[in-house]
Design a protein that fits this description.
The structure holds 2 protein chains of 2 kinds. By secondary structure, chain A is mainly β. In chain A, the strands form 2 sheets. In chain A, strands 2, 4, 5, 6, 9, 10 and 11 form a 7-stranded mixed β-sheet that branches. Chain A contains no helices and 11 strands. The termini of chain A are far apart. Helices cover 0% and strands 49% of the residues of chain A. Chain B is mostly beta strands. In chain B, the strands form 2 sheets. In chain B, strands 2, 4, 5, 9, 10 and 11 form a 6-stranded mixed β-sheet that branches. Chain B has a 5-stranded antiparallel β-sheet with strand order 1-3-8-7-6, with no helix packed on it. In chain B, β4 and β5 form a beta hairpin. The model of chain B has no long low-confidence stretch (mean pLDDT 93). Classes of the chains: A mainly beta, B mainly beta. Chains A and B meet through β4, β5, β9 and β10 of A and β5, β9 and β10 of B.
């Protein structure tokens, strides 16, 4: 029972490089979310999805793109990484019912 | 736009005493979550509150929801050192497009 799995867990990038973070859930959840958390701060919503094939912008979407081609996967892409995107990224998922929210372990990204 | 505000931002507690964290939100809520986060870790689910008047308790923590006042409280009874962490509330609102928005967090430090 894996729950929500994020890969990679750590990554160091140079400014201008691109990368993709993968969030995979095995609970058949409809809703998936990507957040970033900066030191000493709360979680800010980047993008989210309410079902397969759908995506929507959150509070801080600039510089990120997402895709949800398969229900179990939610990908977060950085096309041209900037130092301001250095952060810890969390993925979460929930179903439509009682709606308990499950989080991944986080992905720590450093952009030099 | 859904806004979620927590206060206080920081709470220094004495062991054995009682304290309350407040979570206010700006639009109709469909559910409200409370989470705990230890430094360098992911978020741990504490409570999911679904309806007006909901009250849930686990150990020294009790959460309640007043949807009319758009207010949730997390009450800590007889604080102990193990409760030192950052506590977040988060709100889902269908009126806000099913976004899941977090409060800024309350950092709790319990001193002997």
């Amino acid at each position: 029972n894996a729950g929500v799995t994020q890969t990679p867990k750590f990554r160091v990038l140079k400014t201008g490089q691109s990368m993709t973070l993968l969030c995979a859930q095995d609970m058949n959840h409809e809703y998936m979310y990507w957040y970033r958390q900066d030191p000493g701060m709360g979680l800010r919503l980047i993008h989210y999805s309410v079902g397969e094939g759908t995506t929507a912008k959150g509070e801080v979407p600039d510089g990120y793109n997402v895709s949800r081609l398969k229900k179990q996967n939610f990908l977060l892409g950085l096309e041209s990484a900037a130092p301001s995107q250095t952060s810890v990224y969390f993925c979460a998922s929930r179903d439509r019912g009682l709606g308990e929210l499950f989080f991944g372990e986080g992905s720590r990204l450093t952009v030099l | 736009e859904l806004k979620v505000e927590q206060n206080p931002l920081f709470l220094s507690m004495q062991e054995g005493k009682n304290y309350t964290i407040y979570c206010n939100y700006s639009t109709t809520s469909d559910r409200l979550y409370w989470y705990r986060q230890d430094p360098g870790k992911s978020l741990e689910s504490l409570f999911v509150l679904l309806s007006n008047g909901a009250v849930k308790q686990e150990g020294r923590l009790m959460a309640s929801l007043d949807t009319k006042a758009r207010l949730s409280t997390l009450h800590i009874t007889a604080a102990v050192h193990d409760l030192s962490a950052t506590y977040f509330c988060a709100v889902v609102s269908k009126a806000a497009g099913n976004k899941l928005t977090f409060g800024g967090g309350t950092r709790v430090l319990v001193k002997p």
